[in-house]
Design goal:
32% helix, 140 residues, 29% strand, alpha+beta, six-stranded mixed β-sheet
Length: 140
């Protein structure tokens, strides 16, 4: 929802400052807010993630959970919701680009691949300076 934009920005700003997430402008988040799924608690956005379709695959991006809420499986709940959404869009797999959380994705069924396996339109935007790892999970 458009009213979630401020909460999303507040949640991801510290991770952007640490270089864990790619910096997104307010305008970009406003224009893409319909791609985001959020978990709210007492009026606070405590977790978010975005889904971007690329042909038969979907990119899971901007996955974040507030540090005070990481012990309650909110990441898993959010991943499950986004996987369900991807299946509704007839996507065959989800992929992520990450610099810090590879183990979390591997534990949830993602497999590392070479970035050359990225969808062409996404590979052309790949930032080699960030050196993100590419992981993909087949959906069933």
């Amino acid at each position: 929802e458009p009213e979630d934009v401020a909460g999303i920005i507040e949640l991801i700003a510290p991770l952007e400052a640490q270089g864990m997430l790619v910096k997104r402008s307010r305008e970009l988040i406003e224009s893409e807010v319909d791609r985001f799924t959020v978990i709210e608690r007492d009026g606070l956005i405590v977790s978010c993630g975005a889904l971007y379709p690329f042909d038969s695959r979907g990119e899971l991006a901007c996955l974040a959970t507030h540090p005070d809420y990481r012990d309650n499986d909110r990441g898993e709940l959010l991943l499950s919701s986004i996987e369900h959404e991807a299946l509704e869009l007839n996507l065959n797999s989800l992929f992520v680009l990450t610099t810090h959380s590879a183990h979390w994705f591997v534990e949830r069924g993602f497999v590392e691949h070479d970035v050359s396996k990225l969808p062409d339109s996404k590979r052309s935007l790949y930032n080699y300076q960030r050196n993100s790892k590419y992981f993909e999970k087949v959906l069933s």
